Amino acid sequence: MRARLRKFLAAHSKPALLTFFIGLAIVIMLVFMAIFAPLISPYNPIKGVSEPMESPNGNHPWGTDTLGRDVLSRTIWGGRASIMVALIAMLVSLGVGSPLGAISGYLGGKLDRVFVIAMDTFYAFPTHIMALMIAIMLSPEAMNIAIAVGAAHMPRYFRVVRSISLSIRERLFIEAEKSLGASSSFIILHHILPYTISSITVLMSLGIAHSILTVAGLGFLGIGVQPPTPEWGTDMRWGRDIFLIGKWWAVVYPGFMIFLTVMGFNLLSEGLNAIFQERGGGRYAT
């Protein structure tokens, strides 16, 4: 194990490793916080525990909100909702966009044109606007928000996998498989999709960061995860009014956690991308 670790460290540049490990450390910390929120948070995040709009102090290090709820506890619990919804959204994007991209790129023809037109229609709208439109049509539940965000981000995965599929479908090992009688489904499952793993891994990390921003944006607009469930964007919406009268903590701390989470996943994505590039995997397509 140590020998493998030394070999891994020696094979990659210090900037790539530093970016990767910083991002990984932030992500691990956030996931730990989300999993163990019941043990870490000092108070019940839903119940009022003190005077409303109490400034940060010894009992409430991050102050209280307009209903007297502890901001620190709600921020810790908010990570659970934000990360969970973003993760499900990423899986929806990956589970639908990647297979469609592989099928479209490999088979080509009229089917490819239909898929490309459909995905370009999605891609023509800004991601947040598309997620907002879908979320409005669905009930404001966590799973529906995840589906809305996942559908909005799906074209990214489609375009990446399709471009890779187009680039390798004429290669000799694919032609050899065809000559041996391999079916299209076998080639897609055993050759096309595995070939995209490095690019998809980078895009998954980046996709979670984008999904968290979208989830927070929907929550801030009042269409995301509904109160009293703690969620960073929703909590920022609740703290917006008191922010204007100098009660900054109800907005700043959830906003900082959004920034930290997005930065962590972005650093992890950049680190992975640099590592794969140094291995010869190439940069993912966007």
The CATH superfamily bears the name: MetI-like
- Low-pLDDT residue spans: 282-286
Span between termini: 35 Å
Structural domains: how many:
1
CATH hierarchy class name: Mainly Alpha
- Give me the number of helical elements: 12
Measured on Cα atoms, how large is the radius of gyration? 22 Å
Residues in β-strands, percent: under 5%
Major beta-sheet overview: none
Give the SSE order as H and E letters. HHHHHHHHHHHH
Helical content (DSSP H or I, runs of 4+): over 70%
Average pLDDT for all residues: 88
SS elements, strand count? 0
The assigned structural class equals: mainly alpha
What global shape is seen? globular
CATH topology, by name, is: MetI-like fold
Structure notes:
About 45% of the residues are buried. α2 packs across α4. This protein is mainly α and about 290 residues long. The protein contains twelve helices and no strands. The chain has a single domain, classed as MetI-like (MetI-like fold, Orthogonal Bundle), CATH 1.10.3720. It is globular, with a radius of gyration of 22 Å. The C terminus is likely disordered.
Write the layout of secondary structure elements.
Blueprint: H1 2-11, H2 14-35, H3 37-40, H4 71-107, H5 109-124, H6 127-137, H7 142-168, H8 172-179, H9 184-195, H10 197-220, H11 232-243, H12 249-278
Helix pairs in contact: 2-4, 2-12, 4-5, 4-7, 4-9, 4-10, 4-12, 5-7, 6-7, 7-10, 10-11, 10-12, 11-12
